[in-house]
Amino acid sequence: MNRYLCDRNSSLAWNSTSYLFVQRLDTVSIYLLPFLSIVGNALIIIVILTNQQFNRSSFSVYVQSMAISDTCVLVIKFLSYMNRKPKFYQPSMCKILVFSSDISLLISVWIIAVITIERTLVVLYPLHKKKFVSVSRARAIVITISILAVCIASRTLFITIDDQIRPNFYCMPRGDWEKYRSISAIVLEFSYCYIPLSIVIIGNLLTICTVKQAVARRQNLVKTNSQKNMNSNENQLMLMLLIVTLMFIVYFVPYTIVKLTPRFVLMFNFCFTKKTLGIYTVIFSLSTLLKDLNFCTNFFIYSISGRRFRYALKGLFQKIHHHTSQQYELTRMKSDYLIKKNSEPRLIQMSMKNTFDDTNV
Asked: In the 8-state DSSP scheme, what is residue 193?
């Protein structure tokens, strides 16, 4: 960060209020978001696997793959954070964690881009829907994305890690690999941020515009009850697409702008003072938190915008409650039977004892 300061010879005030705020914010996000991701994405997978309507569509293939990759992104981020602590530091894990993180990140983001492309093609060419949407095609696309993600992420395996253990410099590349690392970071940014973000925004805008035009044409032709139902379904589709677009913009656009800011600072010979650099650090931490929310909030998005998903989730909880009630009832009946079975010999013994006592009398 010193290269962005106007006075590069001065040292940063690392104990400042902004740095402490950023440190606490990062700590909360690193520990909390993986937990939310594990719980939410596990529920998504269970709902889809237990629902036949979801499990037979290409939607299930994409959503399950994205749920797994989203969870891996945040869990690997947590493991990377722990690996940078002196107590748990393992130099051999640096490359493995970065490699795994890049793979899961690329798979997650590009599945969103592929879903957007598929929906756009279906809306633009509705008569050829079967050519674009199928379970086998979705599986092939996910496998292709995974292979490409592995190929792109393999660039990190060539970076040589500095073996010297120094405070706050864990998992840093050796000095002669610094330039390669900066080029590698640019490749990753284009692969998971700039290109997919452009595809998602353009694709959803095309879809919304096409659906609007179709609705306007149908309203001008006829206005029947069936037509109103069709318009209602199209409005729901537009609403879901709008939610997806807005959420993706909220998550990734601020991070993209903040990420590009230092490059424009260097390009136009601007610089940061200590105060402005502290403000930038806080904004960057908040934008990173927003980006990470993309990997743990899909469950809430599906629950709010998807009526069928809500019904399937409700049915899952009802099944669990019914199964639990049955198990409880069986356990209670079994315990009552055992109590009754054990109490009968006692009653017989007591009866015999009373008879014996009466005979003695």
From this structure: I
Q: Please, which residues have CB within 8 angstroms of residue 239's CB and are 6 or more apart in sequence?
A: 305
Q: pTM, whole model, 2 decimals? A: 0.79
**C-alpha to C-alpha distance for 234 and 261, rounded to whole angstroms:** 39
Return d(Cα 293, Cα 288) in angstroms, integer.
9
Helix, strand and coil content of the chain, in percent to the nearest 5, comes to 85, 0, 15
Buried b (16+ CB within 10 A) or exposed e, 36-75: bbeebbebbbebbeebeebeeebbbbbbbbbbbbbbbbbb
Local confidence pLDDT in tens for the 361 residues of the chain: 555 666 555 555 455 677 788 888 888 888 999 999 999 999 989 888 887 777 777 778 888 999 999 999 999 999 988 888 878 788 778 889 999 999 999 999 999 899 888 888 888 887 777 777 888 898 999 999 999 999 999 988 887 776 666 655 667 777 667 778 788 888 888 898 889 989 988 988 888 888 777 766 666 554 444 444 444 444 554 566 567 667 877 888 888 888 888 777 666 666 767 777 778 888 888 999 999 998 988 888 888 877 777 887 888 888 777 767 666 667 767 666 666 666 555 545 555 545 444 444 4
- How far apart, in whole angstroms, are the C-alpha atoms of residue 349 and residue 228? 79
Using a 10 angstrom Cβ sphere, with 0-12 exposed, 13-18 middle and 19 or more buried, the burial of residue 299 is: buried
Domains of the chain: 29-305 (1.20.1070.10)
Q: How far, in Å, CA of 65 to CA of 46, rounded?
A: 13
Is the CB of residue 106 less than 8 Å from the CB of residue 153? yes
